[in-house]
Structure formats: structure tokens, C-alpha cells
Specification:
The chain has two domains: 83 residues, no CATH class; 55 residues, no CATH class. The chain has 155 residues and is an all-alpha fold. It is built from eight helices and no strands. The termini are far apart.
Length: 155
């Protein structure tokens, strides 16, 4: 979104830039990336190719960078297909998981070496697993250590 927004707004007044952005981002959302690429290429042709003297934030550089980004990532930008399949199209899930990980493992007064952190991650994965490996582990351990099996099903 940020590349599309920057390219739409650069070198334009707010209202025309916003209208361009709304159109382009709508097309991206609908899976019509080729139309965005076509208009971006036209916008770059109108501005001219960037020169080495152009600063990073110049309109030509911004539009060229957006065009290259969209071309390079077009295979990963099939948002309409992703939505039809019920797949997430946001990074918020991953960002939330990273935040939870940082809170639980890297919080204040918590110091881990690589082995300890790996063990914590394995325990967390086991806890979240559908096959409940922790339950199986503790059942087997109790049987081994005590000779008893409290989890045995009644016949």
C-alpha cells in the first residue's frame, strides 16, 4: 500500500493524488494489478526516467521504485484469490505472534541462552499442538517412573 500511495500522491495536489490512490489500491485489491502497472508506467513516462542526480524522494524516483516493487512482487499480490480462499492478507497475525513471543520469552528480567529459548519454543509448540504431545509425554513418564498408569481407560 505504501508504494502505491507514495506513487499516487507524489507530484500531485492532494485531491487528484487521493483519487488516483483510491483507484489504484482498489485495482490491487480486486486483482487488477496490470492496470495499476500500466498507469504507473504512463505516470513515469510523463515524469521521465530518474537520473543519478535525482534525490531519493523525487517524483521520478518514487514512481520508479513503486513500479519496480509491484513488478517484482506481482506473484505475491493475488489478493482477490487469497480472499476467495479465506487466507489472511495482512501481516497483523504475524506481528501479534511476534509481540506475544517477545512478551513471553524476551520480557524484562528474562535471560535466555539459545538452548533455553529453543526449549521454551518447543514447549509452546507442544502446548498448542492438536496431537497433545505433552499429555502423551507425561502419561509415559508417570508409567515409567511409578509403574502406575492413572490414565488407563477402564475396560
Amino acid at each position: 500500500m505504501s508504494y502505491v500511495f507514495a506513487a499516487a500522491m507524489v507530484g500531485r495536489a492532494f485531491q487528484p493524488g487521493w483519487e488516483c490512490y483510491a483507484r489504484w489500491i482498489g485495482w490491487v485489491w480486486q486483482g487488477r494489478l496490470d492496470e495499476v502497472l500500466k498507469e504507473l508506467a504512463e505516470w513515469l513516462a510523463e515524469l521521465g526516467e530518474p537520473t543519478p542526480a535525482d534525490p531519493v524522494g523525487s517524483p521520478r524516483q518514487v514512481v520508479k521504485r513503486a513500479l519496480e516493487y509491484l513488478r517484482n512482487n506481482r506473484e505475491r499480490m493475488k489478493y482477490a484469490e487469497y480472499r476467495q480462499q479465506g487466507l489472511p492478507i495482512t501481516s497483523s497475525y504475524v506481528e501479534s505472534a511476534v509481540k506475544q513471543f517477545n512478551y513471553r520469552v524476551k520480557g524484562t528480567e528474562k535471560f535466555w541462552n539459545e538452548q533455553g529459548a529453543e526449549e521454551m519454543l518447543q514447549l509452546r509448540a507442544d502446548h498448542l499442538s492438536d496431537v497433545q504431545p505433552l499429555k502423551v509425554f507425561w502419561q509415559a513418564r508417570e508409567t515409567r517412573e511409578s509403574g502406575q498408569n492413572r490414565y488407563r481407560q477402564a475396560a
